[in-house]
Write a structure and sequence with these properties.
Radius of gyration: 33 Å
Number of helices: 13
Helix content: 55-70%
Mean pLDDT: 80
Low-confidence stretches: none
Number of domains: 2
Number of strands: 11
Length: 390
């Protein structure tokens, strides 16, 4: 008996018991949909978290000086000494952060004030939409100039170009020299609510002296590891206390987040796979019932020349057809499920093409694995004994 004939007979047997076949397929559908949904949401979550970390800047080190008092800050000259001659450094920028109020006319906006230098745009991959970024002269001469985030501009100026206009920042007048490109929110808050000013000006405006936080950008992952070790060594030489500073390695953090996300996705996918196994047990149960109901048919087919292999292939193919239909419906259901969950928690689901291929493979494996016993039982029936069954 050729394959097409066997396939037609298998499909005919499936369609002959539509309700029973539909319930059997439903078990596999739920299992595959659970696997697809969990993996899609997991990959979407990983992509979003990774994107937020990368938005802080690529190959970035954040160094924080901890503690209080004059001995727990460094000067610009000390910062220059700390990063001097370390290979692989692209840019370095101190950052002084505070909250404040920016005003223009009768409009006001609660913003984040960042005191930075001219290298901050390279460190954080920030681009200017209009105007210009801070220059070294602005920093050295403590100029009262500012760059505004997109939300600040919309609140104070609407759709007008603010470059060249004056704003009040914590009561002091600053000249707007540029508008930053929109960057959206991140784990550090919305970057469109920021106002950037020279770090030297920020020291006077905020009444602070010295550097407690600075960013270092490396060329690649290997250079980041070398820079981190070198900066740590020089900071220890400066403070003689390894608790006086903290170095946040974004590359390592990114790897940890990705590793944890993959582990959680695999764990949840494994749990969802259990429901697929339950569907497989349903297939085996239904196929065993089918063997009992069709015992006389099996005996008759053997009596007219069907071999054990023909019978085995027929029942095994029926099992695979059930699981394949369930697998395809499960992919569609899993996609809808993933989009629903992703929309509810506010992320974008990523359809797992590899996961879909694996799910189909698992569905076929379930069909074969749980169908082999009933098919083998049908194939081993004796024709004469089978024909005697009423």
């Amino acid at each position: 008996m050729d394959f097409l004939t066997t396939l037609k007979m298998g499909l005919g047997a499936v369609l002959a018991n539509r309700l029973r076949s539909a319930l059997t397929i439903l078990g596999v559908t739920i299992g595959v949909a659970a696997v697809i949904g969990v993996v899609a949401v997991g990959e979407g979550t990983q992509k979003q978290v990774t994107g937020e970390i990368e938005s802080l800047g690529t190959y970035l080190l954040t160094v924080s000086i901890r503690g209080r008092g004059a001995d727990r800050v460094i000067t610009q000259n000390e910062l220059d000494d700390i990063v001097e001659d370390i290979p692989g450094i692209v840019a370095v920028s101190p950052v002084l952060t505070s909250s404040g109020i920016v005003k223009h006319g009768t409009s006001r906006f609660d913003c984040s004030i960042l005191g930075v230098n001219s290298h901050y745009s390279a460190v954080r991959d920030i681009h200017v939409q209009s105007g210009r970024f801070l220059s070294a002269i602005d920093v050295n001469t403590r100029q009262k100039v500012a760059l505004l985030g997109r939300n600040v501009v919309l609140e104070l100026f609407g759709l007008s170009n603010p470059v060249g206009e004056a704003v009040k920042l914590n009561g002091q007048t600053f000249l707007v020299i540029g508008v930053l490109e929109a960057r959206g929110g991140s784990i550090a808050g919305s970057e469109d609510d920021q106002v950037l000013i020279p770090v030297t000006t920020a020291e006077r405006l905020l009444g602070r002296r010295g550097i407690t936080t600075f960013y270092v950008k490396g060329q690649d992952k290997d250079s980041v590891d070398l820079i981190s070790a070198s900066v740590q060594h020089r900071l220890y030489r400066r403070f003689r206390d390894d608790s006086a500073y903290r170095i946040f390695d974004q590359t390592q953090m990114l790897e940890i987040v990705q590793s944890v996300s993959r582990t959680l996705t695999l764990m949840l996918g494994g749990i969802a796979f259990i429901s697929l196994l339950v569907g497989g047990i349903g297939i085996m149960n239904i196929m065993l019932v089918s063997v009992v109901e069709r015992t006389r048919e099996i005996g008759l087919r053997k009596a007219v020349g069907a071999t054990n292999r023909d019978i085995l292939r027929q029942f095994l193919l029926e099992s695979v057809v059930l699981s394949m239909i369930g697998g395809l419906l499960g992919i569609a259901g899993g996609t809808v499920l993933a989009r629903g969950i992703a929309g509810f928690i506010g992320i974008t689901a990523v359809f797992p093409w590899k996961g879909a291929a694996v799910a189909i493979g698992l569905a076929v494996a379930v069909g074969v694995g749980f169908g082999i016993f009933p098919a083998n039982r049908a194939a081993n029936l004796e024709p004469i004994e089978a024909l005697r069954i009423e």
